[in-house]
Amino acid sequence: MKKILLLTAALLMLGGCGSWHNPNITDPAKEKEIFKRDREFCENQNQQNVPVGAQTDDAPPEPTTYEAEFSENYAYETTFEKCMKRRGWIKK
Q1: Cα(first)–Cα(last) distance of the chain, in Å?
Q2: Cα–Cα distance between 82 and 84 in angstroms, integer?
Q3: Of the chain's two ends, which shows fewer C-beta atoms within 10 Å, N or C?
Q4: Claim: this prediction has a pTM higher than 0.85
């Protein structure tokens, strides 16, 4: 559980480095609504498809190396960005 929280925090920080824009949506209010929906969709897809360490309830997390953590975070971020781009979003 801690890994998921750390990964989500890292994703939010990395996502904060650039904002997302969908050129196909002209209404800013609608863009925010659709962005939220698409972001949640892509995050859920990542949680289902990108393995992040051992995910067992109430078990202590297995020790990982820095390289393993980096690889997991990189895979998660890359997959998230690809998902958002497939849905029409680009980074500003």
Answers
A1: 32
A2: 5
A3: C
A4: no
